[in-house]
Structure formats: C-alpha cells, structure tokens
Amino acid sequence: MSALYLHPDRLFPTDEATRAIARRLYQEVKDLPIVSPHGHTDPSWFADNELFPNPAELLIKPDHYVFRMLYSLGVSMADLGVPSKAGLPVEQDPRKIWRLFASHYHVFRGTPSRMWLDYVFSEVFKLDQLLNSDTADTYYDRIDEYLQTEAFRPRALMESFNIEWLATTESPLDDLRHHRKIRESGWKGGVITAYRPDPVVDPDFEGFANNVAKLGEITGEDTGNWAGYLAALQNRREYFKSFGATSTDHGHPTAQTSDLSVAECEALFAKALAGNCSPVEAEVFRGQMLTEMAGMSIEDGLVMQIHPGSFRNHNPQVFSGFGRDKGADIPSQTEYVNALKPLLDKYGNDTRLSIILFTLDETVYSRELAPLAGHYPVLKLGPSWWFHDSPEGMRRFREQVTETAGFYNTVGFNDDTRAFLSIPARHDVARRMDCNFLARFVAEHRLPEDEARDVAIDLTYNLVKQAYKLD
Ligand SMILES: [Zn+2]
C-alpha cells in the first residue's frame, strides 16, 4: 500500500530562500474565500440540494478530463457509464465503473487531474492510501458513506468549501428554473448564471434555425428578422441579469470579429436562418455577433468573456455516440491582432466595456495577448485555460504576459469546471503557483515582499470580484 500524502510545500520553489517567501505569501491567501466566476457546474445541484447518488456519478461522469485520458488509452465511454445519446448500452453499476477507474489511476501520474483528485480524496474524504485496484472498494465505500451525510449536500459543501461566488453557464434558451428555485428558496449561497449565446449566434451550432425560432417564442420577438433577433437577445440578457448574471461567454472557433452594415447583417442573417451560409460566411456572422454583444454589453454592463480556438467535437464517432463535451475538443491555432480589430475599432476605447480574453494557443501570450491587453482599456486576460490549467500552464502564462500586461490586466483564476468537488483543489493550485511566481520576484529583489503579498491577495480575490463585477 502506498500512502496518499499532500506535501505542504507542493508546487513551491525548491531552493530554500525562495520557498520560504512562497510559504509566507501562501499563508496570506490560502484561507481567502473562493470566487469562481466562470464554470459549468449543474445549477440543479444547488436548486434541489439532493444527496449526490454515488462516487462514479459525482467524480467520474461529469469530468471530461478523466474520461478523455481513459478513452485515449483504450477504455470505452460505455464502460465508464457515460450516457449515450445514441442509446448505446452503457455500464450502470457505479461500483464497476469506480473499479475500472481505480485500476487505471496510474495513467494520471504527472497530470493536474491527479493533483486535483488526490486533494479531493485526502482533504474531503480523509483517505490516506493511494487509489489503485487494491484500494478501489475502500475508496468507494468511504466516499459513498460520506455522500449520504448532510454535510455532503451541495449547499453544505459549497459553504464548507468557502465558495463566495459560483457562476454556472446557460444558453439563452434556458428558462433558468434552477436559478429561480435557488432564489426562491431563500438560501444565501452566491450561485449565479452566465449568458452563453452560442446556440443562437453560431450558424454551425446544431439546430441553429430552430434555436432562433425558440428564442422568438420565449421572448415574444419576431426573430425571423434581424432587428427582432437582436431585441430577443437583448431581452434574454436582461432576464439573465435578473438572476444575477454579470457576464456573457462566447465559445467561438476563432476570435474573429466583424463590423458589417445593417443591410449586410440582414442579408447574412437570412442566409444563416435558411442554412445557406458558407463556412466563411458563418465565420463572418459569428464575428458580427461578437461585435453586437460588445455593443449590448456597453448598454447593460455584462462583462464579455471570449473563449476561442477550441475545435469542438473533433471525433465524429464520439460525438454521434455520446454528444458534446466528452473530451473530444482539441485546441487550434488562434490569431487575435487582426481578428479583434473590427470590434476594437468600434468599441476598444469605451471604458464601459470589459472583455476578458482566453486562449488555447500559448504562442500568442507575449506576442499578441499581453500587448493587446497592455494597451486597450476594454481588454483583460483570463487565466491559463483548460489544457493549460496546470502548474506549468500557469507558470508559462505569468512568465509571458506579466512584462507587458502586468498583474492588473489579468483577472485572477477561473476553475471553469464541471467537477464540483475539484473546485477547492484547483484554486489551491492557482494560489500556490501565483505565490511561487511572486516569490521569485521577491528573491530577485524586483518586488518588496509586502507588495508581493498585496498582489497575491489581489490575484486570489480582489481582481476576480472587480473584473466580474461581483459584489
Ligand atoms: Zn467554460
């Protein structure tokens, strides 16, 4: 049996002088509340506050980082119990799924998933042996036993994790019934929504024309024409704001923006509804919608997040069998300097607007993103994202953007996760890595320690709340 042990100095510098500084900085931030302004947890958890059914349902099925890795090494989605949209038979026995996962746990060595999961096992479930085939049942029984207790209801967990704000992400077609239930329950937990209009602004999204028609039904606007369509989008933004939304989120294949005349928009929109857009026209339309959303943000104050560059559903067989968000999204090369120019020419100097840029293409950090955010008042940089949400990714991000964008054009950490239990683990990694980075500045006499401490607190807490207008 190997012990599961979280070293108190994990992720800190290895030389003693710098490590001592990192430890001191970390003491200042480790207990600050968690602000999670962007993510994909299921709002029904907090609305219904039911017990989580079993370990597999909680820790494996919602975590595409987990089944992506296992799938890549030959484990089938069906054996992991991932629900099939094509109606394929999938494993139903949660203990079998758990054993399969445990027998493959070694494949996560060296990955952030391993760090996050070990943190959850140790800190949340008080397990002290490593997960493997031999300990699989011990793990299952312990986790299952804990999940039956009141302390493990979603709201109680959110409170014990010290999560002050938690944003979920919904489509404009969502009626936000779970958020309504949360509000009506009188519970004070800070669960809010965010407006993600991809299904109704991307001509290539499954069912685009039907989605736009449904948007019309929901809002009472005529979404068959351009003006009615814009009014409907605006109407839903107001509705989302009434449930606490402070941000929008845009998951486009590229960062392209456009600035067309109204006549051009009308013509292109008609084509999109008819399903007649060429790939280039669809790209121009999505780009126009980013610019339209920026204009609406100036009016209603919602912060824009742009998450471009993911080639979604790269594996058609997995997509037809199991649907979206199953670990088959692959980063692609992404350009920003030319792509954002139409939007920036129009709105780049309007300080009522705030746009947070993300990337899956790390080659643009120092060449494009830091100079853009280091100039335009409307632009800020989101943290290292998704494939780069790792200690190495965080280090590369800070090393490449700080010289030009500084710390104050960044917005702290986003966990961006569906895996609720991993939230404290992920924020802990981010806090440790920021302290690690700052400790080097102090050790090199580039920043006094009291200033580094202020920066660490700002990156952990203040900048996040400011950037996402949470108060
Ligand atoms: Zn996201």
TrEMBL record:
It holds the Pfam family UxaC. It catalyses: aldehydo-D-galacturonate = keto-D-tagaturonate; D-glucuronate = D-fructuronate. Its EC number is 5.3.1.12. Keywords: Isomerase. Pathway: Carbohydrate metabolism; pentose and glucuronate interconversion. GO terms for molecular function: glucuronate isomerase activity. It is an enzyme of class 5 (isomerase). InterPro entries: Metal_Hydrolase, Uronate_isomerase. Gene3D superfamilies: Metal-dependent hydrolases (3.20.20.140), uronate isomerase, domain 2, chain A (1.10.2020.10). It comes from the Bacteria. Belongs to the metallo-dependent hydrolases superfamily. Uronate isomerase family. This is Uronate isomerase. The gene is uxaC.
